[in-house]
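WARN no homologs supplied; continuing
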Amino acid sequence: MISTFYLPGRVCSTKAIREIAEKASTAYTMICLKPEIEWIYLGQERMIQVMEMTGATMVYADHFNKLEMENGEWKIDEAPVIDYQIGALRDDFDFGAVMLWDTEKLKAIVAQTDTEYEFAGLYDLRLRAEKLEHIPEYLYYEVETDTRKSGEKLFDYVDPRNRQVQIEMEQCVTAHLKRIGAYLKPGEYKPLPVTGNPYPVTASVIIPCKNRARTIADAVHSALAQKVRAPYSFNVIVVDDNSTDGTAEILKDLKDLNDPKDLIVIHQDKTWHAIGGNWNVAIHDPRCGKYAIQLDSDDTYFDETTVQKFIDAFAGLEPEQDIHAAPRYGMVIGTYQLTNMAGEILPPGVIDHREWTDENGRNNALRINGLGAPRGFYVPLLRTINYPTTKYGEDYAVGLRISRDYPIGRIYDVVYNCRRWEDNSDANCDIVAMNRNNWYKDRLRTWELKARIKN
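OK structure emitted
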């Protein structure tokens, strides 16, 4: 009843998928991405049963991870996966190691395939599938071979060694967006809003923080050390979200040592804010400048020219003739390097997000999990969009929304130090937290897809 085939991972050719479809001779075809799958009693039968009940094209299930210990024994962990949705366009979506396909539907999809991919064969197959059904039951065991922490896996998709794979994945998702009517043509943008309101400064560095006593002084000093050319000016706005570890006291000392026009500290009330809510308070503050530039509370700018480079990107190299004029971009994204707390470079080093192009960046943005850092915004536009009040994915949500209607500029010089340490919010997430984060970003993509199709 089941034809079983082994593929060594998600990256494979269209030729390999075509060979599987040709050789499949039973009602169901099982594709396994890892060897040595161990089934619970009646696990395969349960997958068939759910497929028959739902009419799914493919079903996948929760499972257990087996990790071999040094003493030769196995550690068994639950490995739940998440529901598929139309916005689950990232090519690293985790189905687990087993996918059960309806053979007739599999063959029909492969027969319609019109592009021969070297790496994106399986990605193309599942993007074309009509219904992918998640079974929230633990049906098998697979051996876990990637034991890295979540923070160490985070940058795999921008590792230069994977560049050719990423180019092909982009081609694949772009073709998919065209098929479903969600593709955005290059150069078709709405005009940026123009406001007659005065700006107290040209740019504001925005630093949201909560319990960052170890790092907040470094971030603030890095921001205050910036130098900009006349007639431009800047200030620093720190939003402290009820810190309890001494961060507030450090900010008070820093404020006492600096001009209150240069360093503004906002203390939040006790209601829910998260990172997105802290950003909203900063950008709607009347002291915020025309441009708002990100600096996370545990990071630093690369040198004293970062703010000026953002101003130049927005306004052009010549000083703005009209301070109220709309800039060239609604958002500008810089380039960062990964470092430890001592400033030593960590692999993969410089993250420049070269996958963003003027021609196709806003389409490819639906495939990747982030647009880059640091981010700068045209404040009159950002005030019409606002951040979602969340502590994860808020920056991605804003970037997707801006990219739909407005141009985004890039700075390919390194302007930011992304400092990795044990207290990063994504340093060592357990599987439940990773699933929650991935599900939310997939939901953001789902909403954005619907908006693009509607428009």
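Residues 33 and 97 are 5 Å apart (CA to CA).
OK
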